[in-house]
User: Which sequence fits this backbone?
């Protein structure tokens, strides 16, 4: 379909107005919303993701493409059936209790939104209860935790313990990251995944939700 | 503002030139070529037939300086301009005339053959920040009398970039000229669009040999650009001091300027050189020595002051492997040369003084060249004033990742090096295989060779080149040229 590849290529350029217009025309041509999503928007996003990993495009291009995707999804939303996965999942993120550093966490949030996830950002100095209760109440799939200090890192362990205590550890998965955090530490505290940088954190969430 | 290095005060610079003029007028230069001596004598130089020394009157020298062009362009094999050798423009070219190659598989410095040269030339064609190619090393699988022309032949066959080269004998210039004519089509076209730069090296101290003087005259007659490569050795074949070496370099180089401009007024030349400190402890000529680099940059200042574009052998290393010494010496040299505005910088890819070429090092040095090119673009405001709106946007949006300002300037303000430069976090580096610089460089060499695209020079031109070279090789007892089809990368 000509129009689907047009949508994909405009999305790669980050042209949100064009994507919006083309998505509308595609619906007018009686194409199914699910098909437009899969073969237009997500196909374009897939290319952007691959080019990002190959260092051919950088974060700004990815985020612009994501913005264009959101523009298209907004048009499709009323037409999408329940089975169409228009949100890839919900992620609660925050910097753990006692830690006021949030640059890395913010980057993860921006990139998760860019990748099509719904993000609930609890900010910094977030208590284990806040993490767990927000995840439970919102029906989140993943909790993402960040720490910059070795002294605050144990806050991650507390969140994971609390999830277990409340019997939520099978429905809510965990991703940890931050400068002092290592793969080994993530394993030790029972985290489901470890994102060594923001791009990797998004991959982790995709793997856990997918 | 273009950042700039200045090593000489104006007074000192002028004194060095004055002293060199005095040397030229008093001691003169020993010239072992009859044509050159006759040419100089015809124009008022005094020849001492006993010593073979030719004294250059000051007026002869100053007139030649005024005739030498302040810049010239180079054009690739397709006729497209690639170089503007003028002002403070900086162009990089691989080091040249090596006699070994560093084998990435064995770590050995070994004697090169045709296959090495073809692979190196293919690699050079892919180096974004290295705008010229060079006859980088000698192939041992052809007879000695064609070893110089054979390199140029392979260059013209496999890579479109202009070539920095040179002849080893008087006789081989003819073929090297014919190879260029085959590419350009006519002598006029070659004169209008220079394709090569030929090195012409005086011998320290204060001498021109028969071969180099004749090469110089031949190039000048054809308007083929010449780089003078004077090589005082501080403390051995040159005064131990930097200033003394500069006086010698100036005298030797100016004698070349005179010869070239007498042979063909206005012919393009580069005020070049390959001086070195002499390390008395090892009896070596360290190109990475800071004094070597200081002489290079200072003579380039002198050349610019005289209104002649410049060249230097700098941005290379004395190390015996692609190690930290290789990186530090090359980076320091390339940075100083760029800050000085040396127009043609010969060095990338070289190790072991000027003896060895490494493909992996060329890939790393290409990144160094990219960084220095960024450095000399300097700091320039780009939609930065007034500053308030951008900061308001940052506070409003929480970040500037997708701001118009970021999108517009990201790729021009920041230079993004290739994958040999490691900038990932430790965990990511670990996850991606914990590679060393050498491993990443080798991977890049392999990738570039796989992605190599043949030169777009017309097939009949390539055929002419092969015929010319084959005929010359036959004259020297080689019936068939060595097999040129690269066998690929055995270490890959």
Assistant:
């Amino acid at each position: 379909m000509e129009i689907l590849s047009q949508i994909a290529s405009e999305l790669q350029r980050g042209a949100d107005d064009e994507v919006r217009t083309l998505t509308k025309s595609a619906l007018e041509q009686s194409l199914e919303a699910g098909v437009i999503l899969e073969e237009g928007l997500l196909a374009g996003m897939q290319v952007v993701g691959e080019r990002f990993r190959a260092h051919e495009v950088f974060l700004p291009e990815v985020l612009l493409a994501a913005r264009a995707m959101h523009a298209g999804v907004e048009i499709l939303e009323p037409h999408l059936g329940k089975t169409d996965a228009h949100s890839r999942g919900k992620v609660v993120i925050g910097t753990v209790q006692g830690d006021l550093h949030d640059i890395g966490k913010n980057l993860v949030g921006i990139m998760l939104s860019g990748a099509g996830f719904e993000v609930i950002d609890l900010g910094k100095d977030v208590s284990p209860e806040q993490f767990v209760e927000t995840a439970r109440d919102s029906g989140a799939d993943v909790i993402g935790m960040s720490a910059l200090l070795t002294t605050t890192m144990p806050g991650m362990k507390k969140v994971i313990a609390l999830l277990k205590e409340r019997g939520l550890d099978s429905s809510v998965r965990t991703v940890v990251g931050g400068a002092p955090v290592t793969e080994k530490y993530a394993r030790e505290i029972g985290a489901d995944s470890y994102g060594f940088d923001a791009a990797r954190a998004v991959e982790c969430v995709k793997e856990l939700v997918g | 503002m273009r950042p700039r290095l200045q090593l000489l005060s104006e007074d000192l610079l002028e004194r060095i030139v004055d002293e060199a003029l005095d040397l030229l007028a008093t001691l003169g230069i020993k010239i072992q070529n009859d044509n050159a001596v006759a040419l100089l004598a015809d124009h008022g130089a005094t020849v001492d037939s006993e010593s073979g020394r030719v004294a250059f009157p000051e007026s002869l020298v100053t007139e030649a300086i005024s005739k030498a062009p302040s810049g010239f362009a180079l054009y690739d094999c397709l006729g497209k301009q690639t170089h503007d050798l003028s002002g403070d423009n900086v162009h990089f070219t691989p080091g040249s005339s090596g006699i070994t190659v560093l084998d990435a598989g064995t770590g050995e410095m070994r004697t090169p053959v045709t296959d090495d040269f073809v692979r190196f030339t293919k690699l050079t064609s892919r180096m974004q920040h290295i705008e010229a190619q060079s006859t980088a090393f000698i192939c041992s699988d052809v007879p000695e009398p064609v070893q110089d022309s054979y390199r140029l032949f392979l260059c013209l066959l496999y890579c479109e970039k202009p070539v920095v080269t040179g002849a080893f004998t008087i006789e081989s210039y003819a073929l090297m000229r014919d190879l260029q004519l085959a590419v350009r089509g006519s002598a006029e076209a070659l004169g209008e669009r220079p394709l090569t730069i030929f090195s012409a090296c005086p011998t320290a101290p204060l001498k021109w040999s028969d071969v180099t003087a004749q090469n110089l005259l031949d190039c000048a007659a054809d308007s083929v650009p010449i780089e003078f490569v004077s090589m005082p050795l501080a403390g051995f074949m040159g005064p131990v001091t930097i200033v003394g070496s500069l006086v010698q370099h100036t005298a030797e180089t100016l004698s070349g300027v005179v010869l070239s401009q007498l042979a063909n007024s206005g012919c393009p030349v580069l005020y070049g050189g390959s001086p070195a400190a002499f390390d008395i402890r090892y009896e070596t000529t360290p190109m990475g020595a800071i004094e070597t680099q200081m002489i290079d940059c200072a003579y380039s200042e002198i050349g610019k002051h005289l209104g002649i574009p410049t060249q230097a052998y700098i941005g290379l290393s004395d190390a015996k492997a692609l190690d930290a010494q290789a990186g530090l010496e090359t980076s320091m040299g390339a940075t100083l040369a760029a800050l000085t505005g040396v127009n043609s910088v010969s060095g990338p890819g070289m190790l072991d003084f000027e003896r060895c070429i490494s493909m992996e090092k060329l890939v790393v040095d290409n990144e160094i060249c990219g960084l220095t090119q960024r450095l000399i673009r300097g700091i320039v405001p780009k939609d930065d004033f007034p500053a308030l709106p951008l900061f308001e946007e940052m506070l409003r949006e929480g970040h500037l990742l997708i701001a118009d300002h970021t999108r517009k300037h990201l790729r021009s303000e920041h230079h993004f090096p290739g994958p040999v430069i490691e900038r990932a976090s430790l965990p990511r580096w670990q996850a991606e295989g914990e590679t060393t610089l050498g491993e990443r460089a080798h991977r890049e060499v392999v990738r570039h060779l796989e992605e190599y695209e043949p030169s777009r020079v017309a097939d009949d031109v390539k055929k002419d080149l092969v015929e010319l070279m084959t005929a010359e090789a036959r004259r020297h007892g080689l019936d068939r040229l060595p097999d040129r089809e690269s066998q690929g990368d055995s270490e890959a």
In short: Chain A has nine helices and five strands. Chain A has two domains: 2-79, 90-209. Strands of chain A lie at 90-95, 118-121, 142-146, 173-177, 193-194. The two ends of chain A are 27 Å apart (CA to CA).
